[in-house]
Amino acid sequence: MAYRNKTYVAFDGDRDMHYYNLMRAWRDNKGFSFNFFDAHDLNSARDSSLEYSIKNQLSERMRNTKVFVLLIGESTQYLYRFVRWEIEQALKRNLPIIAVNLNNKNGIDRNRCPAILRDELALHIPFKQRAIEVALDDWPKQHDHYTRRGQAGPHYYNTLAV
């Protein structure tokens, strides 16, 4: 069994890559306390020729994941080929899910959130460095607590991290 210490970040690679790159810049900036172990650093050699080979690489990354972050932009809910599959994998593996609204809404944005995630146990937060940092530290423990109690549905922070 793989050691699960990574953060898997899913997003619209065509439209929202700059948000993912900003998260990496926060992590790499010594002036910030923000940190995460990026699952995308694993098997970074890309074989983009076939969908199943890409999904095999993504599956390997998921096996090393302890928390799943979904960056939700304007078009995320319409991405079925990979993003929906990644969400399905996170749900199947019972990974803590942090849904990050790129429009900075705190709480679920039912106009943008993929339908598959709307009623699932997930934390919905704004795209703010402090909110993401607190969520990465706190949500996995809360997720386990809610899972043991059989609770589901969207969650959010009142004002703690926003």
From TrEMBL:
Residues 8-106 form the Thoeris protein ThsB TIR-like domain. It comes from Pseudovibrio ascidiaceicola. The lineage of its organism: Bacteria, Pseudomonadati, Pseudomonadota, Alphaproteobacteria, Hyphomicrobiales. Transmembrane segments: none annotated. Pfam families: ThsB_TIR. Gene3D superfamilies: 3.40.50.11200. SUPFAM superfamilies: Hypothetical protein MTH538. InterPro entries: ThsB__TIR-like_domain (IPR015032), ThsB_TIR-like_sf (IPR036490). This is MTH538 TIR-like domain. It comes from the Bacteria.
